[in-house]
Hints:
Layout lengths: L1 E3 H4 L9 H10 L3 E8 L2 E7 L10 H11 L13 E5 L5 E4 L7 E8 L8 H9 L7 H13 L3 E5 L7 E6 L5 E3 L5 E3 L5 E4 L4 E4 L3 E2 L12 E7 L2 H11 L4 H6 L8 H16 L2 E4 L2 E2 L10 E4 H8 L5 H10 L3 E4 L3 E5 L10 H12 L19 H15 L3 E2 L5 E2 L28 E2 L4 H13 L7 E9 L12 E10 L3 H16 L7 E4 L11 E5 L2 E8 L2 H6 L7 E6 H6 L16 E10 L4 H12 L3 E10 L2 H4 L3 E10 L8 H19 L2 E2 L3
Parallel strand pairs: 4-15, 5-8, 20-23
Antiparallel strand pairs: 1-3, 2-3, 6-14, 6-15, 6-16, 7-14, 8-11, 9-10, 11-12, 12-13, 17-19, 18-19, 21-22, 23-24, 24-28, 25-26, 26-27, 27-28, 29-31, 29-32, 30-31
Helix pairs in contact: 5-8, 10-11, 12-14, 17-19
Amino acid sequence: MLISWEWLADYVTLDAPIDQVVDRWALSGLNHESTEWVEGVPVIDLEVTSNRADCLGHIGIAREAAVLYSLALKIPAVDLPTSKQSVHEVLEVENLFPEACPRYTARVIRGVKIGPSPEWFAKRLRTIGIRPINNVVDATNYVMMECGQPLHAFDLNRIASNRVVVRPAAQKENFKAIDHRSYVLDPQMVVIGDSRSALALGGVMGGSDSEVSETTVDLLIEAASFEPMAIRRTARRLKLHSPSSHRFERRIDPQGLDFASRRCCQWILQFAGGQLLDGWIDTGAEPKVSSRIPLRRSRITRVLGIEVPWERCQDILSRLGCSLETEQESLVAVPPSFRQDLTREIDLIEEIARVHGYEAIPEDAMVPMVASAARPKDTMMHTVRSIACASGFSETLNPSLIGKAAIDRISPWTVQDPLGTSVPLLEGASHLRRSLIPSLIAARLHNQSQSNRDVRLFETANVYLSQTEQLRGDQLPKEQYNFGCIAESEPRLVRGVFEEMIDRIWGQEGPELEERMVDFDFLDKGSSIAWFLQGSMIAWVGSLSRSLAQANKVDGPVALGELDLDLLLASARSVPKLRTLSPYPAILRDLNFIVDEGVLWGQILSTIEQSAGELCKEVVFREIYRDTKRDGQGKKRVLLTLTIQSDSETLKGEQADAVVSRVVSACEAQRGAKLLAG
């Protein structure tokens, strides 16, 4: 932000040297880039952070100086004579796009004479890098650099039917700007048009068809507010950045439109003559009042480590423009409309600190600090990462955006299409991922290209799931926090990792899960299973399909899996509970069953847990083996181990045999299993 020292003197009288003032600004948050002399005037370049849109004008910088030096701020008075004719008699404005343009206002001046601006006026613009055009355009630019509100002047006689329509642009609508270049628009961009065509690209740049020229007699003065995201998207999409878009992207003062519009009309009437029609057209409702922010006196000392006099704190906030309701040990502040960055108590404390002076805080100031307690999510994530790393996995970080390749279409959590971004942030990636697997496969391929094939990777991040076919403007996608992993092994490795995570986080008191075979098109048939909690899938594992692996040149077998950490956290135990270890020896019994191919391990496990009784402490899966010559087609052998142990006595062989007998009988009756002898 370029500031003319001479221009600044209109609003605040600074007796201190320039070097001292810029140092004070820098210590309060306005970094000093440079100071140069232009046409005999000192011009100061200040870095204004994106949250301080109020400092994108000379009045805002003057207000900062007035607060820092306890000086009076002089805001110019605006007293405008108007004609008897009403603006509503000659102009109609309709706002069809309030989502992107919440407020649009217009005033009309008739009978102006276009010519050059006075030399002193033009010089002020030149010193801050703005080329003077004429007395009307210069007035709009001057006011923008004065108070930070962008304005635009239209030739009223070039507006068809004297009717202005604020609307979304048509798909592939062509627009010729005042830089005499043509741009192709889309419906997410704001157009200021008439009954025939686009007159301006809202918040960014005016159009050549309605620009002020030497023949202009009647003017429409526009002052509007636009949604920052709409303007930022348009400017980036078209690569068309302007001083106006720079300010609208940072959210200008919603209550400053009237002052800026009247101030601009004041200069035009002074330099170009004419008559201002009575009234103005305002399509928006009154801006919302700023929220009330409570501030505790004790909190200031606790955060800063020093005692700032309570009267000093109140004076600082009052000079910043806040309305105060004070009590002995607290106050309630209502920030001014131009300080939309003040929303919390800590924001007010920061303002007090920077104005009082950071240099007033000793380096050894004692600030009481207390370690914060770990959230349940933090505790869970520590366990999840520990188990993954202990199992040989390395963590990856990947972008949330994916492309349109076959792998990118992997979506086990929803059948809805992925959400697209308005502006692609990565080349070839314009959609939000619905699963972590595409990114993990891409990471696996990168490692493979570096001859690192035996790699196990995991990631924890959000996936973005659309719940309907098309989201409305006020809807957001479901952000589901997932754990995803990929390994050069069979799915049972991933299954083991997931089972360990669930067991460690839920414990024995966790809810029951239902295990099902699933059929995802990106996994080999018969290799994939999923767990469901009350009908909602919480996790799945499987092997990447051979066709997909070959198409993407993935070497070797690849096991995949994904776990919904949000569902896992919902049933997490807050405090781990210790289990008493039995001091008595355990008896291990191996069982080898022949079962039908369609019988799942989960079904066998469920049968054993229901029939074995309390003495069976653990059931461990060993392996699956197929011998078609001995057992026939459609049969498989399942080898498992039972751990039989008592908490109160040493078991005898007969007691262990009774447990095994119940298990074998139940498996034969319920699963058609046959126990192999020996």
